[in-house]
# Entry
Amino acid sequence: MSKIKSFQFWLIIIVLAVLPFHAFLVTSIKIPSLWKELIIFVVFITSLFNIKRIDSLDICILVFFLIGLIHIFFTGRSAIEILYGIKYDYYFLFTFLVIKHIDFSEIQKKIALKTVIGASAISLSISLLIYLFLPENFLVHFGYFSIASNYNGQNAIPFCHYISDTIHCRFQGFFAGPNQLANYLVVIIPIYFYQSIKTEAITIWERIKNFVLNKKDLLINSLWVNRLYIFLFFISLTALYLTYSRSAYISLFIQFVVFLGFISKNRLHYRYFLSLISLTVISVCFLLPIANPKFTDTYIIRKASSVMHYRKGVEGVNLILRHPLGLGLGRAGPASGRIADNYNGLIPENWYIQILLELGLVGGLLFIYILFRILKYFSKHNNDYIKISLFCSLAGVCISSLFLHSFEDSGVSLTLFILLGIFYE
# Structure
């Protein structure tokens, strides 16, 4: 292995290891928030002379970049608006493109995966202990803003975000908020789960049975390692519950349904099992409001939040119809919030509507097609546990993006797309 490739690899490992702590480090010790973008750019510069053959997916991503470039020239946006637009809309795809063209050994792939698992486990464990056993405003001592649920793009991250009309803190870990953590968990939960059921020379369906029955003789991992992964899997589910992120709950359910589709050899059994799950979910949705209407209204329905999401989505669609060519890079989503006063930009609460607003119908549809192509690639490897888990991770974030700006957080998008690039062969 050349020294340059080794250098690139360890830079990528640093990024993966630090990402779960990014928001905390930026807030507490004031490290530059662009540290990860700079590292990825160094990896790009050092890989310019070793680019592999460009394929059709690369061309689609480059055309997507070109559409943004055209908007920069013709819409006359300010430099800061353009930079934020590039950061949020393009950098995770740029990262994927860079990583995709680097050759990684099998050992390096395993190290990258273990790094994500280890870093996320440490971040989750420490932050969950803080959330459960220390005062809720404990993070104020590390530079967090002392007023909950108050962020205007200028002040520091608040120590917590309350559930609407309550003083109940949602768990946000070391991330910028509970929704960001929830989306990160949507990425890593499938990885935890597949690591805990990894076995040799048997079908994935048998792996599930081994997971349930905890059969020691058929596990690749030693028993204590297997139990550690199972423990991490359930810890991550607990953490996800405590974020009270409805979009993440929906994503997790979709991931489970998709996973069953991969492992099921008998389609009739799959339909029966899916019907049973659907009936259970419908029953819970019907009975919960009767059994505990206050809990349902406060923690699940959250009328004010739901109405706001719907209203902003409708407003976004109407703007798309009026501006089919797009408003320009950085004019919607998190980038616009950074520019506007009190973080009051054009926030449609839907990543796809945001891209359609910024880059028009052509740019928005091309972005969706790029995601489809990546999903299609990973869906073809139904005997490769890590590729299936990454398919579920990307599918989960894509579902969550229907309700939130899920690709906004670098901990979510860069972790996911670095792994996708590493395992895209």
Q: What stands out?
A: The first strand starts at residue 161 and ends at 162. The two ends are 18 Å apart (CA to CA). The chain has a mean pLDDT of 84. Strands lie at 161-162, 169-170.
